[in-house]
Amino acid sequence: MNRISEEKIGMLYTAFSYLLWGILPLYWKMLESRPAMEILAHRIIWSFFFMVALLVVTRQITSWRKLVSMMIKQPKLAWGISAAAVLISANWFIYIWAVNHGHVVETSLGYYINPLVSVVLGMVVLKERLNVWQWISFLLATIGVCMMAFQYGAFPWIALSLAFSFGVYGLVKKLASVDSAIGLTLETMVVTPISFIYLFVLYHQHASLLSTITVWQALLLIGAGPATAVPLLYFAKGAKRISLTMLGFLQYIAPTLTLLFGIFLFHEAFTKAHVYAFSCIWAALVIFSFSKTKWMQGWHDKIVKRNSFGM
User: Fold this and answer.
1) Which of 74, 115, 177, 217 has an alpha carbon 20 to 30 Å from 100's alpha carbon atom?
2) How is this protein annotated for GO cellular component (predicted)?
């Protein structure tokens, strides 16, 4: 398969994963009465079981066992998988907590920022070069975040935590050479024992939490496995086929859906401060989106050439 076909497949995989993530707030809202940590623990456990079943069906379970053995023998691989597991677990918790505490709009802000975080990570770690327009887009996004902080007198920790945790997770997945399905299974495997221990202690100390779970809630908690694993699986498959910059671009799908849900479905506040901040970020994303076009590249080359003559 040629490079162009691989990239197209990667774009489709990644776009579909972001579409699923965009509608995920609707799922967590149905579990709004449950504690966020409880939901997270179930999410991890059932994701692990779902992925193991998937590996059995796809006959990849032997490869998974081999990688588990490699993790024991190769500390570097084990640390990489563990880092990815911690990052995605933190991202999941922040997102669930924020959605169920009326911060859906701020979560969308975080995922709007994430593409630009991915660009910076690509520049710092992967030595990807930024042109003038990408630098401008990054500065505009920074202004937008600062405006939010100034207007509310509080640091937008939800938005930035989501952006950086998922941005670094995407970078780790980009650097990893493990199959997407096996990698996700390993990540959930690492944190599943902790989740089991947490639920045991939680239900032992607060028996009412266990006794008040309805059949519908139980089904939703179990369904959190495939609801989580499927988009992550497609994201991981797509991440290996396209650039980190393209990953950031396609992510606009998810925060746009989330923002619309937050405003029109969950009736969260969208003040003038939000309009100003989001306008800066949207402008940054428009500039960033077109920064790779031939026309914008031409302007960039002219600016660089002019500056080089002036030196």
Assistant:
1) 115
2) plasma membrane
Q: 9 phi and psi, to 5 degrees?
A: -60, -40
Q: Measured between alpha carbons, how far is 308 from 246 in angstroms, rounded to an integer?
A: 29
**pTM for this entry:** 0.84
- Cα distance between the two ends of the chain: 46
What is the per-residue DSSP string for 118-180?
A: HHHHHHHTS-PPP-HHHHHHHHHHHHHHHHHHHHHTS--HHHHHHHHHHHHHHHHHHH--S-H
Task: Find all residues with CB under 8 Å of 140, minimum gap 6, and list them.
Answer: 280, 281, 283, 284, 287
Instruction: Work out the burial of residue 176: count CB atoms within 10 Å of its CB; fewer than 13 is exposed, 13-18 middle, 19 or more buried.
Output: buried
Closest CA to 36 of 245, 198, 263: 198
Handedness of CA 184, 156, 18, 251 (dihedral sign): negative
Range of the domain at 35: 3-309
How many distinct helices (H) and strands (E) make up the chain?
15, 0
SS3 of the chain: helix, strand, coil, percent, to 5: 85, 0, 15
pLDDT exceeds cutoff 60 at 297: no
Residue whose tokens read 């995920």: 24
DSSP classification of residue 243: -
Distance between CA atoms of 230 and 13, rounded to whole angstroms? Answer: 11
* Number of domains present in the structure of the chain: 1
Q: What is the C-alpha separation between 99 and 25, in angstroms, rounded?
A: 6
Instruction: Please state at what angle helix 36-57 crosses helix 180-205, rounded to 10 degrees.
Output: 140
